[in-house]
Amino acid sequence: MTDISIAATIGNEKYEYPFINAAGVYDETAAQMNEILDSQAGGVTTKSATLVSRPGNPLPRYFNTELGSINSMGLPNQGLDYYLNYIEETNTDKPIDLSISGTSMADNLKALKKVQSSNFNGLTELNLSCPNVIGKPQVGYDYDAIEDTLAAVFEFFTKPLGLKLPPYFDLQQYDAVASILNKYPLTYINAINSVGNGLVVDAETESVVIKPKGGFGGIGGTYIKPVALANVRAFRQRLNPEIKIIGTGGVSTGKDAFELILCGADIVEVGTILAKEGPAVFERLDTELKAIMEAKGYQKLSDFRGKLKEYQE
């Protein structure tokens, strides 16, 4: 497998390996992010940062299930300055992507203005899809809010910008969102965030398994892979070709990642499986993906990226 390259590029960043962590998983502290950078990950995404630090929702707020996980974290993070300082002080050849997730449009604009005036020139990801901030709706389901946010952001923001999107479930939703996104110079989208406001029940205790929001939380893991595949495929068919796609959701094997890339993903993020296995998972995923490519005769990701076939008799 020595001749096989699994490198990929998004914006001004090159990823030697196509797997990174999903924002919010194994990335709240410098120590955790360093573990990812020291692994066979392609890079690291910071915890979704708010202007000031947040403790997040009450515990317990995360629960592993047989097929995935449920969480209602509520954006616990160290604050934007912490992550900007971490990026500036960290000596690495791997990309460090900065995730931003304010609890209001005003806060998002303030955060992005701080990024714009900083020395950071990597990928910034604006999270429009957190389902777990109590009392706050997901901007990604409000088309007017998406349009208003992007119009305001691109009045001043000139650095590479991506959007973390919620899962969509209707073809008309893909059409409507893509028509908005195509108006703006986005570097990429990230599809998808967790499927919001699911519920996991413990039959033994006859109760929910997490405390916030009466047990409602974002669903991740194997449950949501078909939704992630659909979103990546639908947006690759609709977005301008210069807008790249990060595929996220349900990846626990190299085969899962192969399918997302086949649907059009440029790189892949992992969440639930990283929480379960730790950063050693990246080496396994790289090896499994390369093995599939070798068996199929592919030398690089572009040999099959976005080339999903229609059903054939």
UniProtKB/TrEMBL annotation:
Q: Name one GO cellular component term.
A: cytoplasm
> Where mainly located?
cytoplasm
**Keyword terms of this UniProt record:** Cytoplasm, Flavoprotein, FMN, Oxidoreductase, Pyrimidine biosynthesis
List the subcellular locations.
Answer: Cytoplasm
Instruction: Identify the domain of life.
Output: Bacteria
EC numbers listed for it are 1.3.98.1
**Kind of enzyme, top EC level?**
oxidoreductase
**Biological process (GO), any one:** 'de novo' UMP biosynthetic process
Task: State the oligomer form and interacting partners.
Answer: Homodimer.
The similarity annotation says:
Belongs to the dihydroorotate dehydrogenase family. Type 1 subfamily.
UniProt name for this protein: dihydroorotate oxidase (fumarate)
What is the species listed in this Swiss-Prot or TrEMBL entry? Fructilactobacillus sanfranciscensis (strain TMW 1.1304) (Lactobacillus sanfranciscensis)
Q: What is the lineage of its organism?
A: Bacteria, Bacillati, Bacillota, Bacilli, Lactobacillales
Q: What gene name does this entry carry? A: pyrDA
